[in-house]
Amino acid sequence: MINPIKYTLILFLLILSSSCSKLNLKPTDVIDAEKAYRNLNDIDLGLNGVYVALDNTLIGINAIISDEVMLPTENTVSNTDAHRWLYTGDSDSVTGSYYTYYTAIDRLNRVLAGLDVITVATVDIATRDRYRGELLALRAFCHFELLRMYGSVYQNGGLGVPYMKASKVGYPSRDAFEVVVADAKADLVAAKSLIPLSFNDKTRITKVGVSAIQARLALYEKNWSEAITYATEAINLMPLATAAQFPGIWTDATDNEVIWKLKRGIEVERTGNLFYRQSGNIVLYAPSFKLINSFDKDNDVRYTAYIKFDDTRGEKKSQYLVNKYAGTEAFPGLADIKLFRTGEMYLIRAEAEAESAGDAAGDLNALRKARIKGYVSVSFAGKDDLVSAIYTERFKELAFEGHRFFDLKRRNLPVQRLPEDAINTSGAVKLLPTQAQYALPLPALEISVNKNTFQNPNY
């Protein structure tokens, strides 16, 4: 397992092996699955521990290193190296997710091992199978998030991440992009057969949630037919929110079109704190003018749901704030994290259809009609114009949800900021695919302790 304490464990094992003659004793440096998990209640507790490990890191990283946000002058309190593309393998701002997701993976593999050894009554077999399905889907999701984050390129032969199918201490090498994709797809297929359609808890992975993960994974794989198939499955089971329902998604008043979300409690890091510091009332990162200018401010329901304009904040203060995770007066900055929504499924299907001569314009127009008052459908001259329009729509629809940088990387496009969005970036206006920082670095610690892995190019 990818683990910074591996050498401590190795030393412990050497001491143990040299001093103990009772070789049939079970090792004491690991948790015995038979003892840790004795029944389905224990399994459920372990499964919840996996969900709890997932966080909002990718939302912040995608916004800060892309063109979604700008750095206002009032932010003199936050580490801004990531926004200026000055990160290295020692920068926790971009490497912390590596251990976050592998911690979740280690937990779920331990729970899967426990699930294999417990005995359940016949009446509980369906519940046991659903738990297994959730765990397999989580394993696929976590590895996919790591691949999006740390893969060198999103194509066959690219450096991926180790796909861990068991909890163990070792020196795993980096699997290729296509190997990670294949393993994730296999886990998702198995998961889908185990989770019943009747299970509809949106704070956990449901059957429609598996379809949504499959659709997104197929998009990155450029498997257009599968992207269409799985996005359609999700769309058919989870319709778009109406214009009246849409604002309530972001205040957690409703969960229309939400496929899977992470429930956030007051004891966890609040997503709104990525963009706004309550102490001192400081905007850490404001919506970029590039993003603001892309909206029809008068007619697009997304604009006021995502962006707040406040001209009373005073001189040298940003008048624009990220509103998507504003929370409530009682709990500012606190909001559930929406990992998958139907709006994304429409855009996945539209992009896949554009690449395979389908009705991409139909899906794009349908989404716009749901979001923009008085919208009139448009047609496109060709594939390039259509894909460009879909990317612009993804920029708007999925703003601050953890996609923008990865979307640009999927098509090898540069991060291009407007001059007015780069006044405090020390010249960080354009990030090219040929630059080291276009592929995020693995943690320097992992490189130093794992003899079988190596860093992304040019670091």
Q: Say what oligomer this is.
A: single chain
Helix proportion: 40-55%
- The total beta strand count reads 10
Rounded mean pLDDT score = 93
What is the second-level CATH architecture?
A: Alpha Horseshoe
The CATH class turns out to be: Mainly Alpha
Q: How many individual domains?
A: 1
What proportion of the residues form beta strands (DSSP E)?
5-15%
How are helices and strands ordered from N to C? HHHHEHHHHHHEEEEHHEEEHHHHEEH
Specify the biggest β-sheet: 2 strands, antiparallel
**CATH level 3 topology:** Serine Threonine Protein Phosphatase 5, Tetratricopeptide repeat
Q: What coarse outline follows from CA principal-axis ratios?
A: globular
List unreliable stretches of 5+ residues. 4-29
Q: How do the strands of the widest beta sheet line up side by side?
A: 1-5
Q: Give Rg in angstroms.
A: 23 Å
Total helices: the number is 17
SS class: mainly alpha
Could you give the distance between the termini? 24 Å
